[in-house]
Inverse folding.
């Protein structure tokens, strides 16, 4: 595999990429998509090669191969022949592209939903094949989507199951789904994760460290791929794309993610200029935030910009900047930040670094920005999007007035507005971690000396008691794992 992939890499460097993509895809599909069922190990090794080239040469390799496979699957599926195994092989290829991190779970779920909706005997066979191949990986990546799919399949089975002559297959499918739901690998006959794990280890050694560090999974849906000829390929950098609202707008066919500014009004662009959005990327992000209907609309549009690495980090910087400049705190930014953090850990890290910069600059923030920052941080901590470990950047031994005021507001809001069970989770996240020992001691001292001392004079007796009780819950939660370690 190492020599084959390096030779192909060399060919990619010396030849037209389009010719290479076309030829490689034709050869691989000729080998893997046969009327007979392909041996799984052999299929996996072919897909491993695609994944290595996807990471080392560029994502257009995987994108071209995936699009061709999905188109062929759609064509063969529509004229399905029960005896032919071509469709099974194509579904296995897509499942293994997901296994080797070429494609995101979105596409696999789209295909599973398509199969559940149709629900013929062949669909059930393909469903079982996908779930056996990648079921546990899907459960790990998106348990909620898998749970919904299983519920839908159970509804279909009870509604339409009677019409099938072979009831055992439906029973077997439902048992397999329940085993997945309960994370019970033993109940799936012939399930062996070892070959995939071995090849994944090989994949990690073959992918160069520079490429391996960034996420190159293609987050495309089934509709995205089937509409690619008409709408364009937003997932390939530099490819033209006309977004959903402009599918039938002939004048805008050449709109690309990099020239989004043309869609926005002169008034919006002038506003972006006033807010010192001085690069195309920043302007595009700002205009998306300002023109979105709600946080989900903004979230989808931001992901659709297809930004990578440094450009993607600008999303967080612009969002923070807009949030702090609002006259009144706007929860839109907090909920969008929460959604981004749940989408990928990269956003959590960027928010953490961005907040650290703000902590260092608290003295220079206006009252309005200060208040907005307090509410944003409290929301992210309350929703467990970020851990209390973000406060480790604050030196508790050298607290100045702005930092004392900031910590007081954050901790009192958190303690007053959070139920005791949630406080145990929030404060428990930093317990038992040796590196955060200083932070735990700092927080405990701050709560007892700064927060609770002023409570009796400033708060009504009932609220003071609630605050004291919850402060005790938080302190115990921070000590919980430390006590276990000592025992």
């Amino acid at each position: 595999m190492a020599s084959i992939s390096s030779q192909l890499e060399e060919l990619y460097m010396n030849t037209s990429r389009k010719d290479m993509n076309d030829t490689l895809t034709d050869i691989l599909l000729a080998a893997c998509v046969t009327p007979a069922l392909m041996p799984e190990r052999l299929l996996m090794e072919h897909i491993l090669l695609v994944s290595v080239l996807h990471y080392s040469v560029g994502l257009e390799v995987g994108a071209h191969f995936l699009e061709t496979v999905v188109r062929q699957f759609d064509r063969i599926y529509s004229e399905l022949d029960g005896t032919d195994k071509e469709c099974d092989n194509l579904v296995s290829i897509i499942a293994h592209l997901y296994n080797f991190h070429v494609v995101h779970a979105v596409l696999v779920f789209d295909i599973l939903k398509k199969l559940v909706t149709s629900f013929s005997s062949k669909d059930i066979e393909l469903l079982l094949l996908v779930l056996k191949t990648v079921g546990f990986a899907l459960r790990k990546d998106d348990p909620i989507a898998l749970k919904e799919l299983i519920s839908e399949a159970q509804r279909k089975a009870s509604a339409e199951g009677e019409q099938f002559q072979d009831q055992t297959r439906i029973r077997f499918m439902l048992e397999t789904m329940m085993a997945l739901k309960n994370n019970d690998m033993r109940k799936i006959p012939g399930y062996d994760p070892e070959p995939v794990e071995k090849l994944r280890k090989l994949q990690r050694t073959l992918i160069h460290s520079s490429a391996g560090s960034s996420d190159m999974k293609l987050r495309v849906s089934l509709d995205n791929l089937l509409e690619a000829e008409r709408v364009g390929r937003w997932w390939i950098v530099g490819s033209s794309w006309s977004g959903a609202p402009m599918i039938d707008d002939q004048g805008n066919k050449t709109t690309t993610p990099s020239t989004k500014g043309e869609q926005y009004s002169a008034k919006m662009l002038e506003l972006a200029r006033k807010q010192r959005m001085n690069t195309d990327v920043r302007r595009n992000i700002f205009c998306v935030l300002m023109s979105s209907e709600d946080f989900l609309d903004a979230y989808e549009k931001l992901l659709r910009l297809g930004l990578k690495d440094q450009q993607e980090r600008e999303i967080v910087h612009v969002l923070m900047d807009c949030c702090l400049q609002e006259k009144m705190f706007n929860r839109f930014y907090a909920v969008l930040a929460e959604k981004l953090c749940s989408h990928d850990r990269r956003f959590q890290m960027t928010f953490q670094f961005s907040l650290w910069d703000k902590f260092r600059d608290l003295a220079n923030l206006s009252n309005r920005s200060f208040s907005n920052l307090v509410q944003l941080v409290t929301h992210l901590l309350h929703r467990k999007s970020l851990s209390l470990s973000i406060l480790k950047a604050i030196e508790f031994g050298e607290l100045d007035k702005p930092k004392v005021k900031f910590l007081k507001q954050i901790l009192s809001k958190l303690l007053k507005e959070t139920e005791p069970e949630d406080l145990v989770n929030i404060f428990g996240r930093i317990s038992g971690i040796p590196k955060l020992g200083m932070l735990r001691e700092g927080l405990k001292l701050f709560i007892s000396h700064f927060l609770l001392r002023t409570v009796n004079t400033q708060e009504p007796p009932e609220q003071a008691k609630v605050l004291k009780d919850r402060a005790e819950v938080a302190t115990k939660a921070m000590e919980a794992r430390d006590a276990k370690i000592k025992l």
Notes: The chain has a mean pLDDT of 83.
